[in-house]
Design brief:
Helix 1 (4-25) packs across helix 2 (32-51). A hairpin with a 4-residue loop joins strand 3 and strand 4. The protein has one domain. The protein has a 5-stranded antiparallel beta sheet with strand order 4-3-2-1-5, with helices on one face. The protein has helices spanning 4-25, 32-51; strands at 54-59, 65-71, 92-97, 102-107, 111-115. It is built from 2 helices and 5 strands; from the N terminus they run ααβββββ. The chain is of the alpha+beta class. The model has no long low-confidence stretch (mean pLDDT 89).
Length: 116
């Protein structure tokens, strides 16, 4: 008999692999191993953002490095949603920038590091 924990683990791993496959199909990575690594990094940054403040570095489109402090924790910012029902883009990580008080995003292949 399967327990709820084993089902959650299976669904969790399934979502990581689905994300990796999506990243590979978009052409952001040349191998499934790279896409899988990026899917895990996406998972880790989203957990950090949802838990509170996250400190991370990513490479901007123009090539310069940007150190950011972001969050997705509802108590750290106030924002009135306009109700967009877009499908989530798995190759993009969106976050609330604590310093500039606005929404920002970056492509997951440009994430350099996550600091704790």
């Amino acid at each position: 008999m399967k327990t709820k924990t084993s089902i959650k683990k299976r669904n969790f791993r399934s979502n990581i692999f689905k994300t990796a496959w999506s990243l590979l199909k978009k052409g952001l990575f040349s191998s499934f191993a790279e896409a899988l690594h990026a899917a895990w990094m996406r998972f880790k940054i989203r957990i950090a953002l949802k838990s509170g403040l996250a400190y991370f570095t990513f490479r901007k489109a123009n090539g310069e490095l940007r150190e950011a402090i972001g969050t997705l924790y509802k108590r750290n910012f106030s924002y009135l949603s306009k109700g967009s029902h877009r499908k989530e883009n798995l190759s993009v990580v969106k976050y609330w920038d604590v310093v500039s008080q606005g929404w920002r995003s970056f492509r997951i292949d440009r994430l350099v590091s996550i600091k704790n």
